[in-house]
Amino acid sequence: MKTTINQVAKYLNQEVTIGVWLANKRSSGKIAFLQLRDGTGFIQGVVVKAEVSEETFQMAKSLTQESSLYVTGTIVEDTRSPFGYEMQLKEIEVIHEATDYPITPKEHGTEFLMDHRHLWLRSKKQHAIMQIRNQIIQATYQFFQKEGFVKVDPPILTGSAAEGTTELFHTKYFDEEAYLSQSGQLHMEAAAMALGRVFSFGPTFRAEKSKTRRHLIEFWMIEPEMAFVTHEESLEIQENYVQFIMESVLEHCTLELKILERNVETLEKIKAPFPRITYDKAIDMLKEKGFSDVEWGEDFGAPHETAIAESFDQPVFITHYPKDIKAFYMKPDPDRDDVVLCADLIAPEGYGEIIGGSARIDDLSLMEQRYEEHNLSGDAYQWYLDLRKYGSVPHAGFGLGLERTVAWISGVEHVRETIPFPRLLNRLYP
């Protein structure tokens, strides 16, 4: 019976064949222990000299790292293994013998590993991170479908910027100027006016020359937009969404979290509703924590976000930022014109902002005023203005950065490990 590692529990005490790669091996005279992987998981294969042919045993001892094989043997329980099972091998067939595999079990520097990212992905830790990423994606689709959202795909090539403060990747679109999308939000607002509640999931690009552990040049965003939804209602959807994906990972990625040595108890505490503080309160908290030079009207950096998060064991919403440091489309607080109805969700443990969202301006005259203040081209943004001219409604939306969320839930320090092939300031290879 041919199967995969993640299905072996169905074949307890039965003989199966699995296509695998050799991740590592060791031997103790009369027994060889092979660490095997097949893409779905890892399992130990045990070769006992007395139970196989001499040729098979010698083959097991001489196998090289990352050689591909077909192995046949019996699945047995192994309480010592985090996986719970091992394979007592009877036959080994070499498909391809790998030689001089560059990533050995010894320690390697980050740059070396990044240069070999196409191979580093095979390691147990990287495999676990990718599985958690996959589970978050699955949970995202489940949550939004359950909540009545429609999946919509905004364009990646655009003729205008969603946020004027971020540098864009410029390209030629035949005889026009074009940019790689930094956000699908504006087009998602148009989709919300047609379909009510929508969400997108796709790549976005920021030409920021940043080298921090939180930044990528190319990253993936989940961006919901909702018609007839207030700012407060949006916050509830955000916290319920984060709780949903957390519960999904805790349920389905137990082994992966264990491999990453993640403190699961801290993740189990993540329950909605999340605490909320205003920008004004955040300024006061920072001054109390020793940030004496922080001034009202400044945006928060990583140290500020980390300091604020230290006061909570849950993600925390920081709401009502100053209008002048936020995007042109954010709706002003009706009781206070100098702040907008927005929120950033700051993850615990120093992982920073994972969600940014706001109520969107729905008043035509105010949006036209914003166009003037931000020197936005009427031609490039006319279609966006039309959304306020023809049946405008209160609406809100947000964007969750997938890689930062994966980093937080996985407990990984740097976002470069949370995407299969990271694009960094000085890295476009492999």
Keywords:
single chain; 430 residues; alpha+beta; OB fold (Dihydrolipoamide Acetyltransferase, E2P); BirA Bifunctional Protein, domain 2; 18 strands; 27% strand; elongated; ATP-binding
Mind explaining what this structure looks like?
The protein is of the alpha+beta class and 430 residues long. Helix content is 31%, strand content 27%. It contains 13 helices and 18 strands. It has helices at residues 54-62, 110-115, 117-120, 124-146, 185-195, 231-252, 254-259, 264-268, 279-288, 302-309, 364-373, 378-389, 402-410; strands at 15-27, 31-37, 42-48, 68-77, 85-96, 150-151, 157-158, 170-173, 176-180, 197-205, 218-227, 276-278, 316-319, 332-333, 336-340, 342-347, 352-360, 395-401. The protein has an eight-stranded mixed β-sheet with strand order 6-10-11-18-17-16-13-12. A five-stranded mixed beta barrel has the order 1-2-3-5-4. A three-stranded antiparallel β-sheet has the order 7-9-8, with no helix packed on it. The chain is elongated and about 85 Å long. The two termini are 37 Å apart. The model has no long low-confidence stretch (mean pLDDT 96). Belongs to the class-II aminoacyl-tRNA synthetase family. It is found in: Cytoplasm.
Number of beta-strand segments:
18
Q: What is the 3D form?
A: elongated
Query: What proportion strand?
Result: 25-35%
SS summary, helix count? 13
CATH topology (fold) name of the largest domain = BirA Bifunctional Protein, domain 2
Q: Let me know the average pLDDT.
A: 96
Can you tell me the CATH architecture of the largest domain? 2-Layer Sandwich
Uncertain spans, ≥5 residues at pLDDT below 50?
none
Helix coverage percent of residues? 25-40%
Strand order of the largest sheet: 6-10-11-18-17-16-13-12
InterPro entries: Aa-tRNA-synt_II, aa-tRNA-synth_II, aa-tRNA-synth_II/BPL/LPL, Asn-tRNA-ligase, Asp/Asn-tRNA-synth_IIb, NA-bd_OB-fold, NA-bd_OB_tRNA
Protein name: Asparagine--tRNA ligase
GO molecular function, one term: ATP binding
Keywords: Aminoacyl-tRNA synthetase, ATP-binding, Cytoplasm, Ligase, Nucleotide-binding, Protein biosynthesis
